[in-house]
Design brief:
321 residues; mainly alpha; two-stranded antiparallel ribbon; 2 strands; 70% helix
């Protein structure tokens, strides 16, 4: 019986599927895992594309039109008229653009130097280092409006720092640094430094934590001074962090609105009016959304060109030669 059952049992099938079907099966099984990450991030990517692309396209579209809701009879296609007006017939455009560049240059240089110094300081080992780091980083956690309110109280002519200086014979009572064309720029620079320096300190300190300790030990054994170790080890190691932080902060400072608007409103006499503040004034006060869109498009192109040029010249992410 066992022999009969063995004879009756059909042998295992050795037939192979057609070569084409097998290749398609393997290709499908291998492709799905590779496509899965893209499918998972597709909804978020589409939403981000919509939120980014639609405003940009809308701004460039409005920049080619005369669009003022209060004067609908003048609305229509303008071509490049808004851009021609900005470059040839609007002196406020050049004045505000020049102040924006000055504002960015002063802020970025001072914030970088002070942030680097603070990062190097709190990177040392000393008693109370954790508290010192918390105090250094705390201004970055304060909102822009609250920062403006703090500095409005500090610069208040009746209860602020100028009153206490007048009490000791420096200056006069009732002086307001924010309303004087000679002192308003240093005043707003100091206020923005208080908020911006921690950003550089945070990024630079984070990069300092990964600095190669063996290089410092070897340089110290070779007799290298602190300055030489800083110039030849620390700075090259911090190169990418400095490039990235200065680029991000430059874009943010160029688009700064909250602090300047709250402290000075662009005054006195337009001394602290940046290009974004000028755009807001044209759009909100004058309701000229077509011309404001043209100014926004110009600012966008300027930032994009300067960012790409800066990354190219600084060789961000490249190896030092």
């Amino acid at each position: 019986m066992a022999q009969a059952a063995a004879v009756a049992k059909p042998p295992p099938s050795t037939a192979q599927p057609p070569p084409g079907k097998e290749r398609r099966r393997r290709r499908g099984a291998g492709a799905n895992p590779r496509r899965l990450p893209y499918l998972l991030i597709a909804p978020a990517a589409l939403l981000m594309l919509g939120f980014i692309a639609y405003p940009v396209v809308s701004v460039f579209s409005y920049s080619l039109r005369h669009y003022n809701p209060t004067k609908p009879w003048r609305n229509g296609f303008a071509g490049l008229d808004n851009f021609v007006t900005a470059f040839t017939d609007d002196p406020d455009f050049w004045r505000t653009l020049g102040f924006s560049l000055q504002w960015v240059a002063v802020e970025i240089v001072l914030q970088l130097l002070l942030g680097l110094a603070l990062a190097l300081l709190v990177n040392q080992t000393f008693v109370g280092r954790a508290l010192a780091r918390a105090l250094v980083f705390s201004p970055w956690a304060v909102s822009g409006v609250l920062t403006s309110t703090i500095w409005l109280l500090i610069f208040n002519s009746q209860t602020g720092i100028t009153r206490y200086l007048a009490d000791i014979g420096i200056g006069s009572y009732g002086t307001s640094w924010l309303s004087d064309t000679g002192t308003v720029f240093p005043a707003v620079v100091v206020a923005e430094l208080w908020r911006g320096v921690p950003f550089f300190a945070i990024l630079i300190l984070a990069d300092l934590q990964s600095a190669p300790k063996d290089l410092y030990e070897a340089a110290e054994v070779d007799g290298a001074s602190r300055l030489r170790r800083f110039l030849h080890i620390t700075l090259p190691h911090l190169k990418d962090a400095i490039i990235l932080s200065t680029l991000l902060r430059a874009v943010w400072e160029f688009n700064n609105v909250d602090l300047l608007y709250t402290l000075t409103g662009g005054g006195p006499a337009g001394e602290t009016t940046t290009l974004p503040l000028r755009i807001a004034s044209v759009a909100v006060d004058s309701h000229d959304f077509g011309y404001a869109s043209a100014l926004t498009a110009i600012a966008f192109v300027i930032l994009l060109f300067c960012s790409l040029l800066y990354l190219r010249l600084s060789k961000f992410g490249g190896q030092d030669t």
